[in-house]
Amino acid sequence: MPELPEVETTRRGIQPHIVGRKVTAVTVRDRRLRWPICDDLEQRLEGASVLTTRRRAKYLLIDFETGSLLVHLGMSGSLRLVAENEQPRKHDHVDIGLDNGFLLRYHDPRRFGSMHWLDDASHMLLDHLGPEPLSTEFSADYLYRTSRKRSAPVKHVIMDAKVVVGVGNIYANEALFMAGIRPDRAANKVSKARYELLVEAIKQVLATAIEVGGTTLRDFVGGDGKAGYFAQSLQVYGRAGELCKRCKDQTLREIRQSNRSTVFCPSCQR
DNA sequence: ATGACAACCTGTGGGC
DNA sequence: TGCCCACAGGTTGTCA
Predict the structure, then answer these.
(1) How many domains does chain A have?
(2) Closest CA to A210 of A22, A49, A11, A24
(3) How far is the CA of A57 from the C1' of B12 (A)?
(4) Which nucleotides of C are covered by protein (CB under 7 A)?
(5) CA A58 – CA A182 distance, rounded (Å)
(6) Of residues A2, A5, A131, A133, which has the active-site annotation?
């Protein structure tokens, strides 16, 4: 479910309700996430006060004076605030109780997500990540240079976290459509001028999705429980076989790249 | 270094 | 209604 805009939406949703709050009690019902939750997470968290929240790639960081909680939502995770008397449901694996009567509740059916305690805000998972897509560091110049030796499809390269973080399958499809580039074109055969368009498209599609609260697919809700509205704006993702919204002539085609669904317009994207 | 692919899980929707 | 299969928003690790 969650791509970068969903993670950022979650962060913005919970931030105002947890900063300055002290953790009262922590309940871990299932430690078996992508990596097992450390045995002393409860002990680390209880009594600690939240300083702030941050996001790096699709990781959410909750900083305490004593360390940081690193959370990844994986494919099906969500983190939301609920009243402390709300009964846990299936797949509600972790509850972090706060001194304002709310629980920060982690829910993740597929358990592809993760939760780590970091003593010093650094972790191997955060090493070797590429630049943030919305930073100035992520420029056409950078992407052009980086792609010179990559013969892999351009979609694959922009989804590579070592190149740039946070571009998941949905937004990769959307950005390539916006930039008019065929997803299966070799990255090193895309011109500098077209990378200018692509970088702008990636920034725009992510920024817009964040503004409207992420893309709601199935039951995604942000930290405040509100649904996102970006699904209404999708141009190609999930529209295979339907008419291209730009040329209104061609039918959108679907192919599979690295076992992920790719949708594009054979006429508008070259 | 790059790339192809399996793996980790559960839920859902389509076809029969 | 039920069964079986394919597929789903991500990332890591292994192997060629």
Answers:
(1) 2
(2) A11
(3) 28
(4) 7-12
(5) 26
(6) A2
Give the CATH number of the domain where residue A78 resides.
3.20.190.10
Which residues, listed in sequence order, are joined to residue A153 by a DSSP beta bridge? A186
Amino acid at A103: L
Contact between the CB of A36 and strand B at under 7 Å? no
Residue A180 and residue A91 in one domain: no
Nucleotide nearest to A113 (CA to C1'): C10
Known catalytic membership, residue A182: no
Per-residue pLDDT tens digits of chain A, which is 270 residues long: 588 999 999 999 999 999 999 999 999 999 999 999 999 999 999 999 999 999 999 999 999 999 999 999 999 999 999 999 999 999 999 999 999 999 999 999 999 999 999 999 888 899 889 999 999 999 999 999 999 989 999 999 999 999 999 999 999 999 999 999 999 999 999 999 999 999 999 999 999 999 887 665 444 445 555 556 677 789 999 999 999 999 999 999 999 998 899 999 999 999
The domain boundary, picked from A94, A126, A158, lies at A126
Q: What is the CATH number of the domain that holds A240?
A: 1.10.8.50
pTM: 0.94
Q: Which domain holds residue A10?
A: 4-126
Strands (E), A113-166: 114-118
